C-alpha cells in the first residue's frame, strides 16, 4: 500500500505588477481657440462633444484638467499627437503626462 506524500513542495511564485497608469493633462493658454481644443479632445481622446467641452472649460477656468488615464506609452503617444496637431495649426496648446500616485 502506497503512502501519501506529505513533503512540502514550494511552487515558485511569479510576481506580476500592474503597470502604473499615467494621466494626460490639458493645460490652459490664452491663445488656442476653445473650439480647436474641443476638436482635439474629440479626435485624439475620443471624447464626446459634451465631455470635450466640459473638460476644455475646466482647463480654461482652473488652468489644468485631467483628460484621461492610460498606460505610460499610450498617455505619452496621445499627448504628443495632440500637441503636434496644435503645432500644425499654429497654436501653443499643451498636454502633459504624469504618473498616478
Ligand atoms: N483659454 C482659451 C481661450 O480663451 C481656451 C482654452 C481652453 C485653451 C483650454 C486651452 O487647455 C485650454 N481661447
From TrEMBL:
**What is one Gene Ontology biological process annotated in the Swiss-Prot or TrEMBL record?**
proteolysis
Q: Name one Pfam family in it.
A: ClpS
* InterPro entries (alphabetical): ClpS, ClpS_core, Ribosomal_bL12_C/ClpS-like
Superkingdom to which the source organism belongs = Bacteria
According to the entry, every stretch annotated as the Adaptor protein ClpS core domain falls at 17-96
Listed A to Z, the keywords are: Hydrolase, Protease
- Which GO terms of the molecular function aspect are on file? peptidase activity
KW Protease (keyword) present: yes
- Assembly and oligomerization: Binds to the N-terminal domain of the chaperone ClpA.
Reported function: Involved in the modulation of the specificity of the ClpAP-mediated ATP-dependent protein degradation.
NCBIfam families in alphabetical order: PRK13019.1-4
**So what family is this one in?**
Belongs to the ClpS family.
Q: What is this protein called?
A: ATP-dependent Clp protease adapter protein ClpS
Chain's gene name: clpS1
Amino acid at each position: 500500500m502506497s503512502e501519501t506524500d506529505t513533503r512540502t513542495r514550494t511552487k515558485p511564485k511569479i510576481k506580476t505588477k500592474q503597470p502604473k497608469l499615467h494621466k494626460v493633462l490639458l493645460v490652459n493658454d490664452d491663445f488656442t481657440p476653445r473650439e480647436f481644443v474641443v476638436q482635439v479632445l474629440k479626435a485624439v481622446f475620443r471624447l464626446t462633444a459634451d465631455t470635450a467641452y466640459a473638460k476644455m472649460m475646466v482647463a480654461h477656468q482652473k488652468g489644468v484638467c485631467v483628460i484621461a488615464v492610460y498606460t505610460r506609452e499610450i498617455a505619452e503617444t496621445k499627448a504628443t499627437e495632440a500637441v503636434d496637431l496644435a503645432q500644425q495649426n499654429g497654436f501653443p496648446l499643451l498636454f502633459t503626462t504624469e504618473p498616478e500616485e
